[in-house]
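Q: What would this complex look like in 3D?
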Amino acid sequence: MNMNNVIEFDKDKCVGCKLCYKSCFVDVIRWDEETKKPVFKYVEDCVHCNYCEVVCAKGCIKVVPDFKGERLHQTFDKYK
Amino acid sequence: MNNKQQVLSTDVLVIGGGIAGLAAAVTIKETDSNTDVLIVEKQTTGYSGKANRGGGVLQYFDFNRVDPMEFVGYHANAVGCFLGDQEQMLRYVKMNNQMIDKLIEWGVKVPFNEDGTLKIIPTGPMTGMIGVDLDITLQVRRTAEKKGVKIIDKVTVSDLLTNNNEIVGATGYSLLDGTFYVIKAKSVILATGSQNYRVINMWSNGRGDGIAAAYRAGVEMRNAEFGNFAQLFKVKSHHELVFNENVLYNAWDENITKNFRWFIEADINSTAIAEWYNQMAAGRGPIYMRPEESPMTQDDEILFTTDAIWSRPYGLKLWKTIYEKCHSVDTDNEVAPGFLGEQSPVKVNHDMETTVGKLFAIGDVSYGGSTVAGAVPAPPGRNRGSGILNAVFAGMIAGEKSANYAKTEGSAVLEEQVKACQERAFAPLNRKAGFTAKEVIQELQAIIAPVENSIYMTEQRLKIALRKLDKVKAKVSELKAEDYHYLLSCHEAEAMVLSAEMFFKAALLRKESRGWFLREDYPATDNENWLKWITVKDVNGEMTFGTENVPIEKYPIKPRRAK
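A: Here is my prediction, written as structure tokens for the whole assembly.
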């Protein structure tokens, strides 16, 4: 579990296809019915599965994983 | 808090829109197109679950080359270690070709050779593998909708409704606006996946809320102590590694693989994880892999980031993106274990029916509880390519049986029970002070994820883990949520604590090592005393354990020294 992944979004390129919202399997992305654009509401729960980035035909989403902040929770200091 | 309520009725309610739930829903419609089927999924059906994020492979048996019983024999000896239900495994193997044909019929894309035969890679003397594109669940969703299956997304089921130990429906709420749902059904199929404790990204969607709902409804569990799968991951990117346990080295450049692997094995074994721990504890870490030394690992990317072997255009884009990002940070080959869990303890019989009447459990929620595979966690369970097919297997069986229940009269939903479920579900929204789900989950992860607590165990370490867990458990009744998204996180945190308690307590009872299950203090397999399944059940609020004898006398494959 890591709360520091970043999702970059270029709203001008977005055509409102809703696929990013549908493809998120951990409820990070919500949909604004008025603007027809995604709302990245719970980014702290993003697990960088990369689906939203990949399904976007217009290339408006980029998931930037925080690899260093991700924890393995092993006992040895290096891997906590 | 939203006070809106929706009351719905259906013949069969399927909870969970991953590949298992979809396979069941389509099968019901194929059995009887007049049966009303409703899938309720907490995220989006077709994108949820693991089949569309996993390895994209299906296990294949060429029956011209292998007799199904030969595989059952191999599996009982080398994988299930005599804790598996050999009759059900035989049935699974025999259905293999039929299931692959069904998936193709349902629109799933698999690669073919130019002559129209399936493009199979041999993976051993008995098995082969077929690639499957990652839009598998989207394709089956389309088929389900064409056949008239109704789907509600973004609604999470929080409790199951029973009357006289028979299922009568379920309650849940919308993640978007909190509308409370009461869904009446003549039969319910639970397809909510395994418990993965949210540690490793791809597996993070299996959070055990279905397991917990079943437990609260009085469903018996089985094999809870086999919920401790781990794999090796690259340390920098946490990228999953497959077969790299064959080429591990310590800081002294000693090949440590030879300490735990004496012959070529089908998949990772928990002994590899134990060896990582032993080396680290002895100060001989960090542990590195040398993928170039094994033909199984030197070019493993080709399968995913090119279409040289299988054409899987949908998945290719995803895999390429993931690999590229990992490569940007992976400057070395250091490895460490990542804990996946994969607890799947809902007990079912050969029809996939639970101990509560007309309630079925399929896919990763009941893999361990079905005992189909024995002493391993949920798929792949050291049996690569079996995850999707086990889900389809269970879905097809449960689908057919539940369609029959749809013709019967259902019992009444008890209003008092509905009210209690609603109060319980929404309680964290009403607390002003308390603990967040994240605090509880992170404390729990620190207890269950270390490999010496959950994979290479001792009585002392398990008891310490349980004492720590007690402190976390005390916080569950004080979880607070500020909206419906965080409310779901609270329910998931509660489910994780329950799963961990079942795991640690069952693991303490099993005083032996068998298959994936390793006790440092009991290293031998004890066929005299432990050809048994451990069961767990809520009895008047107490977690109560029991055992069932494995009916080894009626199975064709027996351990050498069993009486």
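A: To summarize the key features: Chain A touches chain B through 31 residues (CB under 8 Å). The helical segments of chain A are 19-23, 51-55.
Q: Very helpful, thank you.
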